[in-house]
Design brief:
mainly alpha; 0% strand; DUF716; membrane; transmembrane
Length: 294
Amino acid sequence: MGTLEGHLLPGICLLFFSFYYSVLVSLALLRGQRFFKLPLPPKEKREHSWKPVPVEGVVKVVISLTGILGEFFFPPGVNRMKLVNWEDPQRPFLFSENWYHSTMYGFFMLSGVADIVSQSCLARQSIKLERAAEALAFCILALLLMAHLENRSALEIRVHILFIVPAFLVSLVLAIEVWVPDQPQLWVLKTWLGLVLSTWMLQLCLVMYSPPSGQSWRSENHEDLTFLAIIFCWHLGLGAAILATVYGICSLWHHHCSSWTETSGAKYQPCPTGYSSDELEKLRAGAEQQDGGV
């Protein structure tokens, strides 16, 4: 991961997931959903006893596994899975950078496995398990990034600190969602921070590996370090602009579909859930209110 390609791949993947969550949160707000994603019904209430493997969980596992294999076996012919040099009397650790990056990938893969187990294997979907696994992955990311600051230049330290802040905040929001998953403010905050993380990671590629000007950033230059913070503030605004744009597009699509539904006489029906009858009645009541307002 200590290359341009190594940072570009996770940055693009994180941006893809952030866009996906931007669409989900926009539709959830427009529809007045109580939950970010409507939970699945229990297995006994599904049309089939089996449930297809969730695409989101599979994508997390595939991307993380690809990253781990790349850390240890790319380019082809190398093998960096050796942890300790047993031939040296001091028994030094080997390939710490690769093990560091693989650990990050491993916890995101664990999040994907949690999604698959929750939605395909358990009798009742556990949203708390899914959120807790995501929170753990981002918490590990923030902790490892702090350790990544050792023996780095002032430029690299500044870049990574600006990456740690939103990563830690994402883990904090996800941890709160374990107990209060029905707060739209948290959905918006989580998605916005994800967009900031992904765009800043792509910016990191430009700063450290491929500056557009062709002139490398200088760690000893105060002006260069100052502009890093300024550019990060621009990314905060960029994330908000992207989220607002996605919401606007989804709003147009939602109102267009609502108008078509009203004209055709179709009624919106909430998806069945695996929660208590009281919660199900609240969801149905919300859907009926929404139909009356369209």
